[in-house]
TrEMBL record:
One of its GO terms (molecular function) is acryloyl-CoA reductase (NADPH) activity. This is Acrylyl-CoA reductase AcuI. The keyword Transmembrane applies. Keywords: Membrane, Oxidoreductase, Transmembrane, Transmembrane helix. SUPFAM superfamilies: GroES-like, NAD(P)-binding Rossmann-fold domains. SMART domains: PKS_ER. Its EC number is 1.3.1.84. It holds the Pfam family ADH_zinc_N. It is an enzyme of class 1 (oxidoreductase). The chain crosses the membrane at residues 124-141, 153-173. Residues 11-326 form the Enoyl reductase (ER) domain.
Amino acid sequence: MFDALMVNKDEDTGKTHAEVTQIDLDRLPEGDVTVAVEYSTVNYKDGLCIGPGGGLVRKYPHIPGIDFAGTVEASDDDRYKPGDKVVLTGWRVGEAHWGGYAQKARVKADWLVPLPEGLDTRQAMAVGTAGFTAMLSVMALEDHGLVPGNGPVLVTGAAGGVGSVAVAILAALGHEVAGVTGRPDTADYLKSLGATQIVAREELNETVKRPLESETWAGCIDAVGGEMLARVLGQMKYGGSVAAVGLAGGAGLPATVIPFLLRGVNLLGIDSVMQPYDNRLRAWQRIGKDLPLSKLEDMVVPATLSDLPKLGADILNGQVRGRVVVDVN
Ligand code: NDP
């Protein structure tokens, strides 16, 4: 038996309810590798899967947790043996497949990566899907020509998970970083991560009035989408790129094509879920090298399985700062 955060759905009312429950090992889904989970975390998608489902969860009862790190307990795959430390992000684990909010998980070997050098399992989950995605975004901006010295790089949703890690990585790489936040009380936190400029959310979440504004940002990592992304496109420097990561502010894009046509701006889509294995390894290696661990520690909010129903609601309300690390044991 092991502990897990189990979500049940009342078919009559359609309401979901999450609570910590004891589960028999036999109930784990099929997979090649059984992992003794040590840490998981709370991403925006987890908020949906702990709570209303957001169309992500296929069937109930469900164990959420879109990422985890732990130790292999049993393996039918040659790539992993008992005792190996592993990390999982993506592949719809925690949505379509039982996830990391449990002391045990069973998954496909293809979905795992070895724990990156220089990180322990707790640090790997302080990074988690949010931080991994932040690094994919940095890599995409670099692949499109961003180098330190090009000008300020904007990070939207800066005090959230993706945003916090993005600010810390960009600053450590020598970029000038501006963070957009709707929470003015997080300014000192963002500066401690390396932001040199704080932009108030209200300055950027108004509908586009002019398709082009002053050329301000050399790059942008956008966790917000919606009107903010549309505004930012019109403020990019010539040839600059925006990595579109999230939709915390909306899934729409009420923009014009003018920034693409007149300024050669690039809009780069970032997906962490189906990333090919080689690129996953490359991103995790870069995290081990380019994310200062002291800054990572400053982002951590510790939690246990029983804290998750509240934290799930908090992240949907934009109230989680930095990275929650869930000790499932
Ligand atoms: P968080 O909730 O930790 O961060 C989101 C941040 O966005 C909040 O902290 C807040 O920052 C800001 N925000 C929230 N609501 C609004 C709003 N209405 N308008 C403007 N800003 C808002 O979530 P994550 O960092 O885990 O995820 C961020 C986004 O990225 C989510 O949409 C998520 O689904 C997506 N994502 C996508 C991935 C991919 O593979 N493409 C992978 C991981 C995440 P502040 O208070 O500083 O303003």
